[in-house]
Amino acid sequence: MAQIDDLPPLRDVIAKHGLTAKKQLGQNFLLDLNLTSRIARASGALDGATVVEVGPGPGGLTRALLAAGAGRVIAIERDERCLAALAEISDYYPGRLEVVSADALEVDMAKLAGGPARIVANLPYNVGTALLIDWLTVEAWPPWWTSLTLMFQLEVAERIVAEAGDEGYGRLGVLAGWRAQSRILFEVSRQAFVPPPNVTSAVVHLVPRAEPADVPLKALERVTQAAFGQRRKMLRASLKQLGTDVEALLERAGIEGTKRAEEIDVDGFVALARALG
């Protein structure tokens, strides 16, 4: 295991503070500092950067981010049991770690960051997708975050980067493809976690597009929900729940009604949303 600082090994930290992972919080702790350092490096050069981390737990990734040179890390942790361990890291890196005890879904992260920031996190499995959607649908664009380097279950990661025709292509792939460029950096074995989850994980990197297509978000959400909600049906049937003249909608968007949702690329859904909006 890498020696990135003089703090105790993570297993000792967990034992000292009684940090058994809670399933209801979606916790799976990363103890391998080689791996946490790899994740930190994957986000790019960190010298002086502001980083927002969600779900730091005992602080393995937090330590890697600080050791890699992050000027400021804002760690948002819901589990109060982890605060003492994070305080020890804060003492070791004075003035560089800000720990926020809160539910990440209820925090104004842009306000906390106070300017451009990266988001780097081993996201709790139970809120990862919801957080990603929140970050992709902020009103102001380009967003306050300059990149996302995030750990997901492999299946979710594949859905994020999926394109038309891919098995995992769906609403998440359309949303991510519309506003960001995304790629899977590497997979992570379940044995890297404590406790080991039931699935393989993967680290995904997303960079916001400077000028994504201008389209009403609500319309895009409605169209993708209708189309993928009945993905085995042709669009002329699945889009009926929109309560509009489907044939006219498809004609305005320039899309054949015999197509199915998984055959329509991001530009096609943008066209449908504009026609609806």
Write the layout of secondary structure elements.
Elements: H1 10-17, E1 29-30, H2 33-42, E2 50-54, H3 60-67, E3 72-77, H4 83-92, E4 97-101, H5 109-113, E5 117-122, H6 128-136, E6 145-153, H7 154-161, H8 171-179, E7 180-188, E8 193-194, E9 201-208, H9 217-229, H10 235-238, H11 246-253, H12 266-276
Parallel strand pairs: 2-3, 2-5, 3-4, 5-6
Antiparallel strand pairs: 1-8, 6-9, 7-9
Question: What are the defining features of this structure?
Answer:
277 residues, alpha/beta, Rossmann fold, Helicase, Ruva Protein, domain 3, 2 domains, seven-stranded mixed beta sheet, two-stranded antiparallel ribbon, 12 helices, 37% helix, elongated
**Can you identify the CATH class of the largest domain?**
Alpha Beta
Query: Roughly how many Å apart are the termini?
Result: 54 Å
The strand count comes to 9
Mean pLDDT across residues? 94
Percentage of residues in helical conformation: 25-40%
Number of domains: 2
Which strands sit side by side, in order, in the main sheet?
A: 4-3-2-5-6-9-7
Helix-strand topology string: HEHEHEHEHEHEHHEEEHHHH
Characterization of this structure:
This protein is α/β, with parallel strands linked by helices and 277 residues long. The protein folds into 2 domains: 10-208, Rossmann fold (3-Layer(aba) Sandwich), CATH 3.40.50.150; 217-276, Helicase, Ruva Protein, domain 3 (Orthogonal Bundle), CATH 1.10.8. 37% of the residues lie in helices and 19% in strands. It is built from 12 helices and 9 strands. Strands 4-3-2-5-6-9-7 form a 7-stranded mixed beta sheet, with helices on both faces. Strand 2 (50-54), helix 3 (60-67) and strand 3 (72-77) form a beta-alpha-beta unit. The radius of gyration is 21 Å and the shape is elongated.
